[in-house]
Amino acid sequence: MLDDLRVDGDRLRRRLATLAEIGDTGDGGCCRLALTDEDKAGRDLVVEWMHELGLEVRIDAIGNVVGRRAGREDTAAVMTGSHIDTVASGGRYDGNLGVLGGLEVVATLNDAEVVTRRPLEVAFFTDEEGARFSPDMLGSMTYAGGLPLEEALDRTDADGLVLGDELDRIGYRGPVPVPGPVPHAFVELHIEQGPVLERQGRTIGAVTGVQGISWRELTIRGQANHAGTTPMALRHDAGFAAGAITQGVRDLVTAMGGPQVGTVGVIDLDPGLTNVVARRARMTVDLRNTDEALLQEAERRLADVVTEVAEAEGVTVDSVSLARFEPVTFDPRVVDLVEATAERLGHSVMRLPAGAGHDAGLLAGVCPAGMVFTPSRDGISHNPAEHTEPEDLDAGADVLLQVVLALAEGELGD
Ligand code: GLV
Ligand code: MN
Ligand code: MN
User: Fold this and answer.
1) Which of 46, 108, 270, 293 sees the fewest Cβ atoms within 10 Å?
2) Residues around ligand 2, an ion, CB closer than 5 A
3) Are strands 56-59 and 65-69 parallel, antiparallel or unpaired?
4) pLDDT confidence bin for 413, thresholds 50/70/90
């Protein structure tokens, strides 16, 4: 009976551990920034596993990789997957669980000699993290037609290296055109990366949607001057302005309350010397909210803070959008299916929105989509300490397997 099929958790965890050796930071974490040599090595390994599992592998023009397993009917596929790039301070589960969980679904079906009605596809998307090239979810956004290919290929990293060149360098600019074929449905297994499931004592999250994301890069220009001789009133200090804007971000987020969050993750000062007033600062601001109107309100307040600080300190500020995603609501049928499947398998489950960005949020623009969350110990992620208990990984992969099966056999009524 298909309903009784379960994944092999040991095999899934072995694959997670093997992939985590690539870019191992020695402290339990992983660094595989998009389109680096480590990313290439991780890609090569996952592609090798795809071939071993009998998947037909295609690579598209932005380097997204999709492994396809034929169905009884040659129709639109049920797609699962995630990403294998990491942030520099990454853990071993963010993204990787969704991709290797997808491969584990395929391996389980191969062992049981099950051919689903619809084809199945397991994907990993390029540069989900946006840690090297903004915006985040760049590959899935291009797949779903939300970002023109040429714009994606032209993105540059902090050293001025061009995404398209880096894609060529690692050999992952593929022949398949983007936007890609629209799947029948998309479901992504992912760690929660927050504290909610653990605090509520639940094993599975049925994800209702993804909060909106607004990233800005601010370049502040002041005047370099001598730290000892320049009277305080005569300074145009880009470093001070960056600090004041950082405080302003915290203040606006605190004043708004609710689900609003805000982060200054980067401040670079130039020339960056002890005895020189900074002439230039480059900083980033990450604002997120589940409500689009509130996210716009936060953006307005940030703009006001920037104007006030610039006027008071006599500096100029260029503000550029690096990423902007509206909040996403997942297809209620997929959310219901994830919840009902977790209950049927005997796992405690709750509904919750995703705090991080996810490829499923982009696929939701073109097909019914949803996500399965597993708990994160102490709610920690983007950190080598990121951890999910083995039995929770297995539970998540079992739910993914059963959700994928239901979607492939016609759960959505077509
Ligand atoms: C990327 O996944 C993010 O949430 O920043
Ligand atoms: Mn992720
Ligand atoms: Mn991440």
Assistant:
1) 293
2) 94-95
3) antiparallel
4) confident
Contact criterion met (CB below 8 Å) for 371 and 338: yes
CA of 35 to the centre of ligand 2 (A): 16
71, 115 contact by CB (below 8 A): yes
Q: Are strands 369-374 and 185-191 parallel, antiparallel or unpaired?
A: parallel
Q: Is the CB of 136 under 6 A from ligand 1?
A: yes
| Best probe residue, ligand 1, of 84, 97, 133, 136 (max atoms within 8 Å of C-beta) | 136
What is the CA(306)–ligand 2 centre distance, in A? 30
Q: Which residues pair with 293 in a beta bridge?
A: none
Give 276 Cα–ligand 2 centroid separation in angstroms.
39
Tell me the average pLDDT across 95-117. 98
Does the C-beta of 129 come closer than 6 Å to ligand 1?
yes
Q: Name which residue sits closest to atom 2 of ligand 1, judged by CA.
A: 357
pLDDT-derived band at 1, boundaries 50, 70, 90: confident
Which band of pLDDT confidence, cut at 50, 70 and 90, is reported for residue 327? very high
Q: What is the C-alpha separation between 406 and 114, in angstroms, rounded?
A: 13
CA distance 278 to 272: 7
Q: Tens of pLDDT along 238-271?
A: 999 999 999 999 999 999 999 999 999 999 999 9
Interatomic CA distance for residues 107 and 6, integer angstroms: 11
CA of 304 to the centre of ligand 1 (A): 26
Residue to mutate, 129, 325, 371, ligand 1, most ligand atoms under 8 Å from C-beta: 129
Size of the chain, expressed as the number of residues it contains: 414
pLDDT tens digit sequence for 21-68: 999 999 999 999 999 999 999 999 999 999 999 999 999 999 999 999
Rounded to an integer, what distance in angstroms lies between the CA atom of residue 177 and that of residue 229? Answer: 60
Instruction: Give counts: helices (H), strands (E), the chain.
Output: 12, 15
Q: Which one, of 68, 69, 70, 65, lies nearest residue 82 by Cα?
A: 65
User: What residues pair up with 90 in beta bridges, in sequence order?
Assistant: 30
414 pLDDT above the threshold of 80: no
The single residue listed with the structure tokens 């002890």 is: 274
pTM above 0.90, yes or no: yes
